[in-house]
């Protein structure tokens, strides 16, 4: 296809630029460079620990979670990452990645207000108030300001990045397309995507990385991990933060650390040679391209560049690239087919169809086809959730019940599938089924006691033994 050819040409140009890049050491660190930032006076907060809630000074309705590295001092400037969770729970990314904030010396902020369902205008106001409050109270190096987001939060983060000139880079997890369009989007920032191989947005990421960003000046890369639609594991996020660090070295925002760069790079050289020895051409092609992206201008990439040029004409590589392009179309058509089935097919049809899909997942030998089917099931989980939630809001109980049955069928370990089903059971006055499904939710990891105790749909059972038993079981799980 034309865009694959165009991408190969553009990446070849990147390689030629890498060959001529300098390798001079950086003389100044970010803290030594002249700054417009006002370091003092700043507030003093606890360092080296998670702070769950910091209320904005000029708007008490806005708050955020925060982690300051143990080295934090009001007398120095620090890089900052603002995190946006899809459900407005800033504590989640801050608690997951606080060790990375400590390792890299970053301030990590998690918005507790930005969430799915907000309009773009609301998201913009929330982010502006967040930036203003943090910059007025903490010692921030505004030249090293990054955004991090998951799912809908990633779309918000990317939308802000392409419209806000003060953002140095963005890490998008689980979603790539920005929440807003711009007639004049920025191109002077870093973009890194992280997506699970079973994430229903995987194809979106591949297209955004290989097509949408192709030809633009935005420095970009994509990292994948074995997982679903979820915040990436720490070791994967570590790769993303290291990539940011390497870009900062290239831009002279921090001093180049030759020994640390070499420590990371040498194992990659060994791995590349192993892939070549095993004649794993496509794996070597992708690994080679990623390594050049990470280290261009920082190390001698002659070996990787020569290997990449050779792999560009490799027949197996060409076959795999064409197969990937074809799989995008195949997956989108499959998703569309099942989306239409939500309104056209009964539960008996769904039960039979999903059984066939699960059997194929177990027996199919082609790994790519297995991943397509897994991503499709994960996509159906999202659609079922949205259909069930929408029906509940419209008080269409029968329709909501049907969608929830499909929800449990396509995603039998999803706590929300059982919780929503229990909500419908409660509306129907069926105590036995209500607490049966709530128990299933606990078995699969449900632990939000605040949501349960505040959920009025279960109040009719509040004085029953079943309610007390479930409440006790939930409290015990949280200990």
Task: List strands and helices in order, with pairings.
Elements: H1 2-20, E1 50-55, E2 63-67, E3 78-84, H2 91-104, E4 107-111, H3 120-137, E5 140-150, H4 152-163, E6 169-173, E7 190-196, H5 202-212, E8 219-225, H6 234-250, H7 258-277, H8 281-295, H9 302-311, H10 315-344, H11 347-363, H12 367-393, H13 397-410, H14 415-427, H15 431-443, H16 449-454, H17 465-478
Parallel strand pairs: 3-4, 3-5, 5-6, 6-7, 7-8
Antiparallel strand pairs: 1-2, 2-4
Write a structural description.
This protein has two domains: 26-255, Rossmann fold; 337-478, Tetratricopeptide repeat domain (Serine Threonine Protein Phosphatase 5, Tetratricopeptide repeat, Alpha Horseshoe). It contains 17 helices and eight strands. The chain has helices at residues 2-20, 91-104, 120-137, 152-163, 202-212, 234-250, 258-277, 281-295, 302-311, 315-344, 347-363, 367-393, 397-410, 415-427, 431-443, 449-454, 465-478, and strands spanning 50-55, 63-67, 78-84, 107-111, 140-150, 169-173, 190-196, 219-225. Strand 3 (78-84), helix 2 (91-104) and strand 4 form a beta-alpha-beta unit. The longest helix is centred in the C-terminal third of the chain and has 30 residues, at 315-344.
In short:
The chain is of the alpha/beta class and 479 residues long. Helices cover 56% and strands 11% of the residues.
